[in-house]
Every structure is written in C-alpha cells, then in structure tokens.
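Q: I have 251 residues here and want to know how they pack in 3D. Can you give me a structure?
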Amino acid sequence: MIDRRLRWAVNVGGWAPEEEEFEFLLSLLNPEEQAACKRYRLFEDKKRALVSRLLQRKCAVEVLEIPFAEVDIRRTKGGKPYVSNSCNRKPAPNFNYSVSHELTAQEYESIMTLRPNEQAMAEQFQKLWCLKEALVKANGLGLGFDLCQAEFELDGSRAHLRMGGLPQPHWAFHLHRLPCDHYVAVARAPPSVVVDAWGGFKRTFGVSTFTDLQWEAVLEAPEPSFAVLPVSSLVPVDLILEFEAAGGDVW
C-alpha cells in the first residue's frame, strides 16, 4: 500500500525569482488566488503565499491523482483550505493538509527553566508555537480560538495535549526539525473535532467515524519525515519547459 502521508517543505527564503519567473508561477493559479498573493505588500510575503498555494496543488495531484488544472481549493469559514473535489477519492478518502500564540503558565515555565541558554529557550518557544498552530489548523478554528485553553507537554519529538486541563488522548502531535533550525508540527485528530460552519470541508470526508482500535492505529502509525523540495518541483511536468524559459531554475 502506498503511503500517501506527505511531509514537504520549501526554502522560500533561499529562492530569489526574477519578475518573469514569479509571474509565470503566479499564472498557474486561478484569478482569485493570484489576487490574494498580490495583496501582500512585501515581496517575501508574496513569495510565501505563492509557494504555499503551489504546494497545496502538488499535494492534491500526488495524493488524490487529480490533474493540476482541475484542483479546486476552497476555504472553510475559519479560513482552513481544503480540496473541494476530493470527495470519495479512493487513494485518500479523508484528505486533509496544512501548509506551519499564546502560552500557558506551564509552557512559559518550560521555557524559563532553560535559562540562561538563549538558543534552547528560543527552540522551546518555537516548538510550542508550532504545536499551537498545528492545533488550530487541524480543528479549523484559526486564531479565533483561545490558545491558552490548549497546553502542550513535550516528549522528545512528540507532544501531549491538554484542553482546559484535561488530557486529549485522541490527538497526536509530532515535531520535525527542518534545515536552518526551523521546526514544524503535524497534528493527527479525528474528523469529529473539525469545525466547519459551511460544511464544505466535511462533505469531502470518505470516512467520518472510526472504532477505538482503528483510531489507535492511526495515532500510532509511523510518522513520515519531511522532504525539502525546490520550487521547480511544484510546476506541472508539462509546463516545466515554459518555467525554464521564464528564468526558473530546474533542479
């Protein structure tokens, strides 16, 4: 069975496209998403927005076997992106993805106990920040959620969640360290915790309920590692020559 759990990252900071290359990649998006990328004032933010959207499409193409041009990405009321035409796709019936700040007293203390090692303190904060972000992206609530209600306890590359002081054994969190000392967190949570006021995202679920044994197997499944991709890998194969002609580097 093919493992369709993908972990990808792109070093956007190391990518310095000329205008023609950037505009070519932007043209691969629909007009609404092009406008969303252009709304950012700083070019660095425009790059991140563009690469994020291209990554989403590449993920849908690889996992759901949907042609690049047919990938239809929409957002829930809380701003969570999802592929609207992923319904009942056999390769991944419950397709979901995330493209990663408040601390409790215990979390703050876990940082302070690392003094005077400033690097260790910064890493601890970054890990907790990533975990909080993974939580709100997984449940679809976004930053409207009171992050102080969620508390994380780190356990190596894993983390345990408490909500309102109560353990949440149906959640699993995994931390990954990327190049340049960046961290990212991956959350696993049952479909029942997803908040989707408009219902579009939940309608894409092929499986909405799990037995306790089935969900335990999901939580305990090995965690794939991240792969760092070049921007050129986000371009559809049939358009790679046009990308190169626009000044893009093909790695």
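Q: Anything worth noting?
A: The chain has two domains: 8-84+225-246, 105-191. The chain has a mean pLDDT of 87.
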